[in-house]
């Protein structure tokens, strides 16, 4: 029997959506008559493309490291997890190294599309810090941070909104659509999804969430689409604010009554010794998390992520997860296997 770890690998490697060639384009073409040379040329091109598609598909099957029996066994083992989470909402916060590395990004996108195809209602909430820094540099604006938060003046806010909403968001939508999904891009301004106010006077247009209305997101999910949300919000006067992506994902998950909130990070999860991966904590409850913070084991930038998880659990999210976005297919490992990936925090 194939191992659980191979579930995500096989599902990710199997060709999805390759077009099958119509039988009449592969055989029996001698009986086809053409009235014009142009029609004949178009038909011949279509025949070549169809045969090429079929050849590529056959080659992919031949070079697979798994036999047909092994692939069927793995899919059968995934069935209980698919049944358990079918129709449930999963909110994924995406950013960090997984967003910068193109091969990792391709894997995350395909994992999301796969989960959507088996009936899960996926919501992708994203940041885009590295790309924002890149464009600020092109415009000669030096980025500044205070306590891990970006100091956002008017000029910086304009760049943040253009990059997150106009570039990163639409790029992710295109990638999901290309992979066979059907994504809808939006930000906190759309449908009054996220209302905000200034978090602190010395941070400029960094926002604190005051209200969340996910009625538009629910409509998108119920129509079978995948919402992709950039974390830019507005106040009652329409002023834009930059919102922490972890915080936004947690509030959206709570408003949707999500089954899972998954934060993809640049670390494996919560570890008793951050230099030793063998000390990873696979599962912990709220009480245990607070003890880890008190003992100084969870520190720095991990504290806001943990607090975001705890708050979401208190607001009705069933389980929260901190997983390593750098690990290939960590999303599938977390949802479709018993062993999971990273750290699961429960109530």
UniProtKB/TrEMBL annotation:
Report the EC number(s), separated by commas if there are several. Answer: 2.7.2.8
Q: Please provide the record's keywords in A-Z order.
A: Amino-acid biosynthesis, Arginine biosynthesis, ATP-binding, Kinase, Nucleotide-binding, Transferase
- Annotated pathway: Amino-acid biosynthesis; L-arginine biosynthesis; N(2)-acetyl-L-ornithine from L-glutamate: step 2/4
Report domain Aspartate/glutamate/uridylate kinase positions: 88-324
**Pfam family of this protein, just one?**
AA_kinase
Give the first-level EC class, as a single word: transferase
**GO CC term (a single one):** chloroplast
Q: Which InterPro entries match?
A: AceGlu_kinase-like_sf, AcgluKinase_fam, ArgB, Asp/Glu/Uridylate_kinase, Glu/AcGlu_kinase, NAGK-C, NH2A_AcTrfase
Q: Can the keyword Coiled coil be found in this entry's annotation?
A: no
- Which GO molecular function entries does the Swiss-Prot or TrEMBL record give? acetylglutamate kinase activity; arginine binding; ATP binding; L-glutamate N-acetyltransferase activity
* Record GO biological process: L-arginine biosynthetic process
NCBIfam families per record = argB
What name goes with this protein? acetylglutamate kinase
Q: Which organism is it from?
A: Physcomitrium patens
Lineage of the native species?
Eukaryota, Viridiplantae, Streptophyta, Embryophyta, Bryophyta
């Amino acid at each position: 029997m194939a191992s659980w770890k191979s579930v995500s690998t096989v599902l990710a490697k199997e060709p999805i959506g390759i077009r099958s060639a119509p039988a009449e384009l592969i055989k029996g073409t001698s009986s086809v008559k053409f009235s014009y040379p142009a029609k004949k040329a178009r038909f011949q091109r279509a025949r070549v493309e169809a045969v090429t598609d079929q050849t590529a598909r056959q080659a992919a099957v031949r070079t697979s490291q798994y036999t047909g029996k092994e692939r069927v066994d793995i899919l059968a083992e995934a069935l209980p997890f698919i049944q358990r989470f079918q129709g449930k909402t999963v909110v994924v916060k995406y950013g960090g190294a997984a967003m910068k590395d193109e091969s990792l990004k391709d894997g995350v996108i395909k994992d999301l599309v796969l989960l959507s195809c088996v009936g899960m209602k996926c919501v992708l909430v994203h940041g885009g810090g590295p790309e924002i820094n890149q464009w600020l540099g092109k415009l000669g604006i030096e980025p500044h941070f205070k306590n891990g938060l970006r100091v956002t003046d008017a000029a910086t806010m304009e760049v943040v909104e253009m990059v997150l909403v106009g570039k990163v968001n639409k790029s992710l939508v295109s990638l999901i659509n290309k992979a066979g999904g059907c994504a809808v891009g939006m930000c906190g301004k759309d449908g009054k999804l996220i209302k905000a106010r200034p978090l602190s006077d010395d941070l400029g247009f960094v926002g604190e969430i005051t209200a969340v209305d996910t009625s538009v997101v629910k409509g998108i999910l119920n129509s079978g689409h995948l919402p992709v949300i950039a974390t830019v919000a507005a106040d009652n006067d329409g002023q834009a604010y930059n919102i922490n992506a972890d915080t936004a994902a947690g509030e959206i998950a709570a408003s949707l009554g999500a089954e899972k909130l998954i934060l993809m990070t640049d670390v494996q999860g919560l570890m008793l010794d951050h230099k030793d991966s063998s000390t990873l904590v696979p599962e912990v409850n709220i009480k245990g998390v607070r003890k880890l913070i008190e003992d100084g084991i969870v520190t720095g930038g991990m504290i806001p992520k943990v607090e975001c998880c705890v708050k979401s659990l208190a607001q009705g999210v069933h389980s929260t997860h901190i997983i390593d976005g750098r690990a290939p297919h960590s999303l599938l490992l977390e949802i479709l296997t018993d062993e999971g990936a990273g750290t699961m925090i429960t109530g």
